[in-house]
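Record type: monomer structure entry
Structure origin: computed from sequence
Chain ID: A
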Amino acid sequence: MRWLHVYTSMISLLLVLFFGITGLTLNHPDWTFGDDVDTTTVTGSLPAGLLPAGDETVDFLSVSEYVRATYGVGGSVADHGLTGTTGTIAYKAAGYAADLRFDTATGELSLVVEQQGFVGVMNDLHKGRDTTATWRWVIDVAAVFLVVVAVSGLVVQLVYRKRRRSALTLAGAFAVVGVVLLVIGRG
């Protein structure tokens, strides 16, 4: 059990370092370290072939692909819709957001792209917000590693008779402190 604890701890310490640093920057959103949000607004028009004629509906996929190719929009489509003659498509990725508004009658468009800096991207990765399925899998694997480290560490402490009483006392004390902090934190 000790070897399992040692090797999973080595991997998990890197995870704890990442989540610890990003936990601090999440708790202090003003800590951008000079890497502020970059917002760009672009206006233009859609080609006539992409505009619906008569009773046709908007082909959001074609509009989206045109905007991606023409304006370099990234991220996954988070939402799209049509209200009257105004179409919208929202794109999201870690540290990135792009909002497209276009008029289905005239083809005029407005694109607002918000690119966060390195800290913003890391914070979104910490939360798993607007990330890929691969990154969500990485977060799950990280959680499993941390659970294995915790359980194997407790087992190692309980196996050694000399340390058992002090280990249980310390674990119990920190469990009580944790519960108290949870109660206080709920406000």
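Annotation 1: The helical segments are 2-27, 60-71, 118-127, 133-159, 161-185.
Annotation 2: The first strand starts at residue 38 and ends at 45.
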